[in-house]
Recover the amino acids of this structure.
């Protein structure tokens, strides 16, 4: 039976949203553990800042490649099974660190983990799109994004307690166990969304050349803007806790509490962005304002805030500026996947969203290594951190301004599909199974 142009949200959609929220929670807890245990790892393995920066970047070596490959896979394979395999890879990649290992083993395990986690956000978003019609997607995507923030907020105190009272090796083992728990829960409760293409609608759907999709202003604008935001995020994952300990002189125990502050602020930012965006769309605002401007403008503001870091005294004010400046960047993650989904044919959506994710996460390869090199070459540790954060500020401002310029026209729906309606809001585009 063909659905109407504005389908109702299927039963069970919010249960799946919660499970995928937990999926992203585990995902980001896995990401943060190296940064959280950064000082003990550097001390035990006698690592220089450049080596630790390489360790942070290694997570992203296969991240983008895996995201693209899996993105094409989910065009035809149910996301339920793909998500299950990804989570299983994450869990198994953690257990080698429980024992005594060398730097090379740790590096290889982080590369494998990155390959498993590279497709995660894009595949989860694609799965969400199978449960919510376009005009109702922004809020569930915001909730999905908050899995990252809560993964840090909840995991950091627990993992830091393990690190302080036992050692960093057991923190990795705990994450592996939690990952396996999610796998079991998903096997029991996970389902594929009913808002999928039928064979008839797939045959009728006009495919758009990938070259046109990937060079559209909206796609390029989303990649550019999110690249800057991800630069800030990957610095936070790898270097925030070492900065608190080595740059500002706090203890590892104190740093465990301080390290959750950017994520708390970021969580509020993302939820507010999702709620405001959905409210604006419901009241007739265009996508360019309700998604494009709302997502990209905070990057410029955040960059300007980070630029003031070298001009304040080390301590509380510096932490506050870093928390607010980096926390504002989360707004862009909420809006871009829905914007791209507005004009991308359903049969191509998984691949396009994954390619978007693969491109902006290249910032994760560069940012930790650049920061490590800057710190190692600086005459003073704190001065090195300030230079690294200033570079981040410039990248944020530039990416935010370019994002605003590219996202403002937002003509892709009409140019590529010939209609002002989102692709899967069209009659016959989606059907319950």
């Amino acid at each position: 039976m063909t659905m109407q142009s504005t389908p109702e949200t299927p039963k069970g959609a919010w249960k799946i949203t919660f499970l995928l929220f937990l999926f992203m929670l585990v995902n980001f807890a896995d990401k943060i553990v190296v940064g959280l245990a950064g000082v003990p790892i550097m001390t035990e393995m006698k690592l220089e800042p450049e080596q630790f920066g390489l360790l942070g970047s290694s997570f992203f070596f296969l991240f983008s490649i895996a995201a693209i490959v899996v993105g094409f896979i989910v065009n035809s394979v149910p996301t339920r099974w793909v998500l299950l395999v990804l989570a299983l890879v994450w869990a198994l990649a953690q257990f080698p660190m429980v024992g005594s290992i060398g730097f090379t083993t740790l590096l290889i395990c982080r590369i494998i983990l990155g390959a498993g986690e590279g497709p995660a956000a894009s595949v989860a978003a694609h799965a969400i799109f199978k449960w919510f019609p376009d005009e109702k997607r922004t809020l569930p995507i915001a909730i999905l994004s908050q899995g990252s923030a809560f993964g840090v907020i909840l995991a950091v105190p627990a993992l830091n307690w393990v690190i302080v009272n036992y050692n960093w090796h057991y923190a990795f083992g705990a994450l592996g166990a939690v990952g396996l728990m999610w796998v079991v829960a998903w096997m029991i409760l996970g389902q594929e969304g009913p808002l999928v293409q039928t064979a008839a609608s797939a045959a009728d759907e006009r495919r758009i050349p990938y070259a046109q999709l990937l060079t559209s202003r909206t796609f390029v604008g989303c990649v550019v803007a999110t690249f800057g935001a991800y630069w800030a995020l990957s610095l936070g994952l790898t270097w925030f806790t070492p900065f608190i300990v080595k740059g500002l002189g706090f203890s590892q125990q104190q740093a465990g509490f301080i390290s959750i502050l950017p994520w708390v602020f970021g969580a509020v930012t993302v939820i507010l962005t999702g709620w405001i965006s959905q409210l604006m769309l419901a009241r007739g605002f265009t996508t360019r304002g309700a998604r494009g401007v709302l997502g990209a403008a905070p990057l410029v503001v955040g960059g300007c805030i980070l630029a003031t870091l070298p001009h304040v005294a080390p301590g509380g004010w510096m932490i506050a500026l870093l928390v607010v400046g980096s926390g504002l960047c989360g707004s862009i993650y909420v809006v871009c996947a829905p914007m791209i989904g507005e004009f991308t044919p359903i049969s191509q959506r998984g691949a396009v969203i994954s390619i978007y994710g693969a491109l902006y996460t290249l910032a994760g390869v560069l940012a930790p290594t650049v920061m490590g090199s800057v710190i190692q070459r600086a005459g003073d540790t704190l001065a090195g951190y300030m230079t690294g954060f200033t570079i981040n500020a410039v990248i944020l401002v530039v990416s935010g301004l370019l994002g605003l310029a590219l996202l403002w026209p937002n003509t892709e729906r009409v140019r590529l599909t010939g209609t002002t309606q989102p692709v899967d809001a069209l009659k016959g585009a989606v059907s319950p199974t």
Observations:
- The radius of gyration is 21 Å.
- Residues 13-191+209-416 form a domain with the Growth Hormone; Chain: A; fold (CATH 1.20.1250.20).
- Residues 1-5, 425-433 have pLDDT under 50 and may be disordered.
